[in-house]
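A favour, since you know our structure tokens better than I do. Could you add the entry underneath, on a fresh line?
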Amino acid sequence: MRGHPCAVRECLQKARDSALLAVEVYNKPAVSFKSSAYITLMVIAWTALFHAVFFKRKSKPYYRKQSGRFVWVDGEPKHWDLDECLRQYYKSDTGNAVRKNLEFFIPLRNKIEHRNLPELDPSIFGECQAMLLNFDECMEQEFGAKWCIRQCLSFALQMYPTSENLAQAVGRNRAVRSAAEFVRQYRSTLDPGVYASGKYAFKAFLIQVANHPSQDALAIQFRNYDKLTEQEKTEIDRLVVAVKYKQSSIANADTTRVGEVCKRIQAAFGNPKVMRGSKQINKYNQGWHTKCWIRFAVRPSSGSTHPDHTDARYCIYDPRHNDYSYTDAWVNLLIEKFKDDKLYEELYARNEAGGSVRSAARVETNSLHVETANEHASE
């Protein structure tokens, strides 16, 4: 522990202890207050880590008045909270995926720390896992590997507790609605590159292997996706699509109905209106959405003999209700595509000219990799 001033060492110890307590609470099987306790403790851990960084840089992380004097509370200088730490640490790098991950948890903590909402846990697991991985990486980057907590942790034993998605949880417990709506709205504002980053949310498939090539092989091995070869990434992507396709009739996390998709995109663009005849209607309505799923070929047409042959990254068929729901990735894709009105105008211009929107269904299939849906159709 030598080499750092006392204030730095105290903050580092606090950061490590808080992070380890967070993981311990989250992994306790009898605890239902998992995410709420984990997020609260990890916010403390991250805040202490940033304080250690600032102390190391000879910068006191205290609020100041306009006069330059410190703000005092109960006889002590008021430390920067996590939000202020992020502004001071990342400065103009507002799109940083690690920063976006932490900014997700600041308001969410305020929503859930006084409630017990275990239904939310499966939906935000990816963000929670990334929050921990990012913490250890930042700790190593700023203070060296000896301060990391990874050597103290092991994989938690799992029993596959639930396949319930967030929409189903909201239907079962209305108290979840406010927090769930925040999660959806926040994700819809993210740049697609940030949302897909493992720094923002860590997601993985845990697939059982029948036999290891060696008796000495580890039961579970972690491989960073960013460090795989292009061939390995291609094989993994195909596997992910296949697994999602096979699971689609059971459950898909965070899928929403078409009405909710339109509401989220309307909100993302500031609730714009357009004139249709003599009426003023929402610009991003269900009619527009129909043109989009046709244009990007994410699902088969109505009456198809293979309604389940969708692009599972964006659309899921529900055989129980004979309808479709859409993923957050689909919402994010549409927000990115329609930042410029050119595509919106093109969709309606083609329709008014008498051309079939369906004829354009394959225009962007290469970029969306919907050939996977065709592979399923030929099986």
